[in-house]
């Protein structure tokens, strides 16, 4: 009679998210509710170990945040091409009886069961990565400015909330190939901190912008009041965003009524803003738009890398799980 020869079972495959510069949406994930790696094979006789399960990799764009769905605890963020995050680790294979052989017991009659792999529900969110985020009231001309400064063609109309989704554009203003990435989000209104309007739902897309471009509608009944209101709402909603450096532009100076008050409005905006980064433009006629983009490019280039504030830990006792949801692993 020979000794024990039962091989070990293989380790199950893991589910891994991989950051890919060539991917710009989460559409592949939206169409797949369940993502499963393959099972491992059982160990066999004659000391043959089971084959490992194959990992499943899902490509996601830079700026992707992954959270545990029930607790919203942050698992990780993929920012750079090639970054990887193991979101569900495969189970450990069981040991065959050959693994329990000792000098005293050279024919063990026991084996070890495998451990199941991790299963969890995830919340996956994409935060757009841009250099400049547009800020302002609805109908201030943000989308018109985006169209004037880039090849983007957002929906433009003369009524509030024409923009209902974020729009990205690239302004090519230099020969080095490094364009200025612009992000236009729906406008903010008074009460935005309490959830009014569309803007608050999309503010996360400008959290990593280095600079905020505050577009003020010069034809408004109270342009200065609009500027102050937006900054107050921003501070109440997200102090992290409110502390970001701003460049202020007074838009629609092609309108005669705005031209008459231009000097007065510029002086008041500089006083309220507390800095001199205030310019006049007409997005509709593209007046001063090229100059604005040039100054923005220089201003952005001297800003430090924008980073998000630390995410607060979630108390798992308030939302208990059937299993520990901290089993995330990163590498690469």
Automatic annotation (TrEMBL):
Task: Provide the OBG-type G domain boundaries.
Answer: 130-301
Name the Pfam families for this protein.
GTP1_OBG, MMR_HSR1
Gene3D superfamilies for the chain: GTP1/OBG domain (2.70.210.12), P-loop containing nucleotide triphosphate hydrolases (3.40.50.300)
A GO cellular component term found in this entry reads:
mitochondrion
- What is a biological process (GO) this protein takes part in? ribosome biogenesis
UniProt KW keywords: GTP-binding, Nucleotide-binding
Enumerate the GO terms in the molecular function aspect. GTP binding; GTPase activity; magnesium ion binding
Please give the SUPFAM superfamilies that the UniProt record associates with this protein.
Obg GTP-binding protein N-terminal domain, P-loop containing nucleoside triphosphate hydrolases
Q: Which family does it belong to?
A: Belongs to the TRAFAC class OBG-HflX-like GTPase superfamily. OBG GTPase family.
Q: Please name the PANTHER family in this protein's record.
A: DEVELOPMENTALLY REGULATED GTP-BINDING PROTEIN-RELATED, GTP-BINDING PROTEIN OBGC, CHLOROPLASTIC
| Protein name as it appears in the record | GTP-binding protein Obg/CgtA
């Amino acid at each position: 009679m020979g000794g024990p020869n039962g091989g070990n079972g293989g380790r199950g495959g893991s589910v891994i998210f991989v950051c890919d510069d060539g991917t710009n949406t989460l559409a592949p994930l939206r169409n797949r509710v369940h993502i499963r790696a393959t099972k491992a094979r059982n160990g066999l006789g004659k000391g043959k170990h089971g084959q490992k399960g194959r990992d499943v990799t899902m490509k996601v764009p830079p700026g992707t945040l992954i959270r545990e769905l029930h607790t919203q605890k942050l698992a990780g963020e993929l920012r750079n091409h090639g970054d990887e995050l193991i979101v569900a680790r495969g189970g450990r294979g069981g040991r065959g009886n050959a693994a329990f052989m000792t000098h005293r017991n050279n024919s063990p009659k026991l084996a070890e069961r495998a451990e199941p792999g991790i299963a969890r529900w995830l919340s996956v969110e994409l935060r757009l990565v841009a250099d400049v985020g547009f800020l302002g009231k609805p109908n201030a001309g943000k989308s018109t400015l985006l169209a004037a400064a880039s090849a983007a063609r957002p929906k433009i109309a003369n009524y509030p909330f024409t923009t209902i989704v974020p729009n990205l554009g690239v302004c090519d203003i230099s020969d080095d190939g490094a364009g200025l990435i612009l992000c236009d989000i729906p406008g903010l209104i008074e009460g935005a901190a309490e959830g009014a309007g569309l803007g608050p739902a999309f503010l996360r897309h400008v959290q990593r912008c280095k600079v905020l471009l505050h577009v003020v509608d010069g034809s408004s009944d109270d342009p200065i009041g609009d500027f102050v209101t937006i900054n107050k709402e921003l501070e109440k909603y997200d102090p992290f965003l409110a502390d970001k450096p701003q460049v202020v532009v007074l838009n629609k100076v092609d309108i005669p009524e705005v031209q008459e008050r231009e000097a007065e409005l510029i002086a008041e905006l500089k006083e309220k803003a507390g800095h001199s980064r205030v310019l006049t433009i007409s997005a509709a006629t593209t007046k001063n738009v090229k100059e604005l983009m040039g100054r923005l490019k220089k201003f952005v280039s001297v800003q430090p890398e924008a980073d998000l504030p630390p995410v607060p830990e979630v108390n798992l006792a308030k939302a208990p799980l059937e299993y520990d949801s901290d089993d995330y692993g990163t590498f690469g």
